Amino acid sequence: MSLLICKDASFAYEGHTVISDLNFSVNSGDYLCIVGENGSGKSTLIKGLLRLKVPQRGSILMDEGLKSNEIGYLPQQTIVQKDFPASVYEVILSGRLSKMGIRPFYSKLDKTIAEENLVLLGIEHLRNKCYRELSGGQQQRVLLARALCATQKLLILDEPVAGLDPIVTQDLYKQIFKINREMGIAIIMVSHDVHSAVKYADLILHLKGQQIFFGKTSDYVKSSVGYGFLGGE
Amino acid sequence: MVNILIQMFSYPFLVRAVIVGLLVSLCAALLGVSLVLKRYSMIGDGLSHVGFGTLAIATAMNVAPLTISIPVCVMAAFLLLRISENSKIKGDAAIAIISTSSLAIGVVAISMTTGMNTDVCNYLFGSILSMSHADVKLSVTLSILVLGMFILLYNKVFAVTFDENFAKATGIKTDIYNMLIAFLTAITIVLGMRMMGALLISSLIIFPALTSMRFCKQFKTVTICSAIISIICFFLGVVGSYVYATPTGASVVIVNIGAFVLFWFGNLVRMKVNGVKSINGIEKRGIK
């Protein structure tokens, strides 16, 4: 069952096309990595998928069962967050916000789900810690738990391992892989780390101003695009 | 001490000033937490200068100050917000231009009408005599509005402050909340400006939030503490200014500085005792 179908979509800033001719689809339970160099349009596409940017041409269709408030999103960290005084629990609970509508306060269900995700990511001992005092890897886990509070279907991650050391990076990749396999949540991840991308993802979307590859990871490794980008290994 | 308070509150104008001041400091502290964390502190400062300009023009045109100040400041707040969000224009430079322009316009307007007299001094540094009955009513209404908004929208304000992109992606209309915060900030500033002074009012927004961030680790406690700190500091400032016959606005700011230094130092001592090396984790990790 398709969660999301991108049909001939193009995105532009002030009439200047950044990325064009996108044709791909993501089924439920898929793990898709979007790779490409800086400025290849990855972040723009993410904005499009999150409905923050309207396509210039073409369309992005969501499956009927997927509403825009059912997408979990792990954005890149901002400077604001680096010294933000908030407890881990407060941050994770805020992931339930999209389900609240006009209801002003969190329900018992919201709190239960937040607690469950704390346990799932193994950060229950950090529950009352201040977000700004955590290490980079712990912060990403907190934001991942928040994203999980918002979704049961699709998780969109924008360079989740940026700035993390190699060990923490591998841990986080494994955690994301586990979420994908065990909970059946589809993953769309933007990544600079193409080697890890081919290691974990089922599908690869390679961008360079337009779509230059979309397909199974095994095909990508054999293709000329993938061969070149992987450094000819 | 009790005698001083009884003596103080026998003056009706002082009672009015204290009521308005306490309510304005409460609102400013609540709004300030969000503004400081979003790096919008300068908006408060810019708005107070715009307020000065409008106040001067209103006096020159001989109309009630609030009828001009409130709409102009609200418009300026939306403008400043737009500028800060637009990364193409350098936000801080634009705010500096707007605040100095309004200051200049205000000074020229005053000198062309009444001349540079004590009025200017009152506008810039505040006067405790300036609170009317209408101001009391307006500030009560405003503080109910701000308090109500804060309680009902607390979780959304948190989300919009902590991570605007995430909030936007999950379908929250962040622009509306930003505009609401800017709108309420503009009104708070206009109300508090004549008592605290155009040059000093933004301290009510910035100091309590910064002070409570020294020792609070949760957004909820930061918000509550800055409201309490702000109210206590204002009250001590007013009493101090009465006892020592110093200008009210400046006295309140000095008490706020005192509180900030106290908590900063207290936190430093606590860190030393606990053996933690950094204050807020930035130094610990380095900015990536």
UniProtKB/TrEMBL annotation, chain A:
Please verify whether the record's keywords include Transport: yes
Which UniProt keywords are given for this protein, alphabetically ordered? Answer: ATP-binding, Nucleotide-binding, Transport
User: What is a single Pfam family found in this protein's UniProt entry?
Assistant: ABC_tran
Which organism does this sequence originate in?
Answer: Tissierella pigra
- GO-annotated molecular function: ATP binding; ATP hydrolysis activity
Q: Which PANTHER family match?
A: METAL TRANSPORT SYSTEM ATP-BINDING PROTEIN TM_0124-RELATED
Protein name, as recorded: Metal ABC transporter ATP-binding protein
Specify the ABC transporter domain's residue ranges. 4-233
Task: Give start-end of the signal peptide.
Answer: none
Give the family this protein belongs to, as stated in its UniProt record. Belongs to the ABC transporter superfamily.
The organism's place on the tree of life at top rank? Bacteria
Automatic annotation (TrEMBL), chain B:
Please provide one cellular component term from the Gene Ontology annotations of this protein: ATP-binding cassette (ABC) transporter complex
Q: Where in the cell is it found?
A: Cell membrane; Membrane
Principal localisation: membrane
Q: Which GO terms describe its biological process?
A: response to zinc ion; transmembrane transport
Question: Where would you find the membrane-spanning parts of this chain?
Answer: 13-37, 57-81, 93-116, 136-155, 176-193, 199-216, 223-244, 250-269
InterPro entries per record: ABC_BtuC-like, ABC_TroCD
Topology of the protein relative to the lipid bilayer: Multi-pass membrane protein
- SUPFAM superfamilies reported in the protein's UniProt record: ABC transporter involved in vitamin B12 uptake, BtuC (SSF81345)
The answer, when asked if Transport is one of the entry's keywords, is yes
* Pfam families, A to Z: ABC-3
Is-annotated flag, keyword Lipoprotein?
Answer: no
Q: What name does this protein carry?
A: Metal ABC transporter permease
